[in-house]
Amino acid sequence: MTSLIRIQGAATAPANPQAMSGRAETTGKVGRDLLERAVALALRAPSVHNTQPWRWRVRRTEVELHADPTRHLVDTDPGRRDLLISCGAALHHLRVAVAGLGAAVDVEYLPDPENEQHLATVRLVDGRPDPSAAALFGQLERRHSDRRPYSAQAVPAGRLAALVSRAARHGVLALPVIDPTVLHRVNEVLRSAAREQRRVPGCLAELLLWTHRYANAHDGVPRGAVPTRTGLWDQPHLQRFPAGTLAPCRGSGTSGGTDGGTLLLLATPRDDAAARLAAGEALSAVLLAATRAGLATAPLSQAVELPSTRTRLCAALRMPDEPQILIRIGVPLPGAAPLAPTPRRPLASVLLRP
Ligand SMILES: Cc1cc2nc3c(=O)[nH]c(=O)nc-3n(C[C@H](O)[C@H](O)[C@H](O)COP(=O)(O)O)c2cc1C
Questions:
Q1: Where are the domains of the chain?
Q2: What is the whole-number distance in angstroms between the Cα of residue 196 and the centre of ligand 1?
Q3: Which residue has its alpha carbon closest to ligand 1 atom 6?
Q4: Helix or strand or coil: residue 232?
Q5: Start-to-end C-alpha separation, the chain
Q6: pTM
Q7: What is the spatial distance between Cα 330 and Cα 225, in angstroms, rounded to a whole number?
Q8: Atom 2 in ligand 1: residue holding the nearest Cα
Q9: How far away, in angstroms, is 49 Cα from ligand 1 center?
């Protein structure tokens, strides 16, 4: 799909006090500096196993987003779904950063049919920044995947509805999995996905590679981002990574406190590269908006990675749309300590020559 989407018409003040409002100011070196700052912020996007499978080419008034095939988890993610969702999340982070810095952009998706790695070109345009993206600017460095237990308090219905409409703006269905029977079935698929992946040597190798990085690595999932083994360890969302060093919060853990977290499924009408990029953008929008609302979040992709478990997930959900990713969302426990940021590669490592 090649479409041109104009993101304009702002009503709120941009996050940058020296905000730019027109082409004249966002051309040349000024535009390039702004785009480099925005890309640096976009690097905070979530990605599967924190692989950060993206590269960027920054020019004077535009930036290209490319997938990095050397960071593709070929056995865990044979269809490139996670890779494209990760890049879509980075693209949305970029939009939020550009809007927060006070500029407006057009996004051209999949602009080169001869090059499947070229995912988008983002161009500075005249106009005011997108207010709904700018409103999320402050969350780019606050959002983290939180795999700890959540409070027993359910996510308020109004908050959930707001997240559903955030996803809808990207043409993505966000479906809260509330019905206990369906939830039970989805949890069973998550468990069996973890079991099946353990039997695929390539998945195990990729898991080990990305959870046992060398000291001071700029990527991968650090042990400090995964909870220690507790009485709640059999929870489906904890089946992915080996136990880590993240302390369980007060009021949870071994005593088996109830977790009121909700699963939100992101699904699209089609299942092609454009749909997966859109799912990534919706993922980013939901995660940042949830963070803004004081909620804890963590993406969950195991159930959609292997074709066999994805088919079972479709059957469990009994819906016509294409499942892309699940998100666990909840109210943090009162004693929850702030999470440490996970590492990111430096800007220079992810820039392509202009
Ligand atoms: C496409 C995608 C799939 C992911 N799948 C999982 C998952 O199955 N389980 C999990 O705990 N985290 C998952 N994550 C979260 C990443 O591990 C996390 O984003 C990464 O380690 C960086 O940490 P941060 O989100 O705290 O910045 C996923 C993220 C993305 C974008």
A1: 4-142, 157-330
A2: 19
A3: 300
A4: coil
A5: 25
A6: 0.93
A7: 17
A8: 48
A9: 6
Mutation to probe ligand 1, out of 41, 43, 44, 49 (largest number of atoms < 8 A from CB): 49
Decide if 4-142 and 157-330 have a common fold. yes
CA distances from 114 to 111, 120, 192, 230, 236 (A): 9, 13, 38, 50, 40
CATH of span 4-142: 3.40.109
Q: Is 297 helix (H, G, I), strand (E, B) or coil?
A: strand
Residues with CB under 6 A from ligand 1: 46-50, 82, 85-86, 89, 144-145, 147, 221, 225, 240, 298-302, 325, 342
And the tokens for 6?
Answer: 């104009």
Longest dimension (CA), the chain: 61
Residue 86 CA, closest ligand 1 atom number = 31
Q: Give the Cα separation of 272 and 257 in Å (integer).
A: 40
User: What's the topology of domain 157-330?
Assistant: NADH Oxidase (3.40.109)
Task: List the one residue out of 244, 231, 211 whose CA is nearest residue 50.
Answer: 211
Closest CA relative to residue 147, chosen from 256, 46, 279, 248: 248
Per-residue pLDDT tens for 304-313?
Answer: 999 999 999 9
Atom from ligand 1 closest to the CA of residue 147: 11
How far does the centroid of ligand 1 lie from the alpha carbon of residue 250, in Å?
Answer: 24
Please tell me the residue having the least CA distance from ligand 1 atom 17: 49
Q: How far is the CA of 286 from the centre of ligand 1 (A)?
A: 14
For ligand 1, atom 1, which residue shows the shortest CA distance? Answer: 82
pLDDT digits (tens, 9 = 90+) for 6-35: 333 333 334 443 444 444 455 677 799 999
Q: CA dist 3 to 27, 106, 110, 115, 212, Å?
A: 23, 10, 8, 16, 40
Q: 142 CA distance to ligand 1 centroid (A)?
A: 15
Note whether 91 and 282 are within 8 A (CB): no
Taking only the tens place, the pLDDT of each residue in 104-148 is 999 999 999 999 999 999 999 999 999 999 999 999 999 999 999
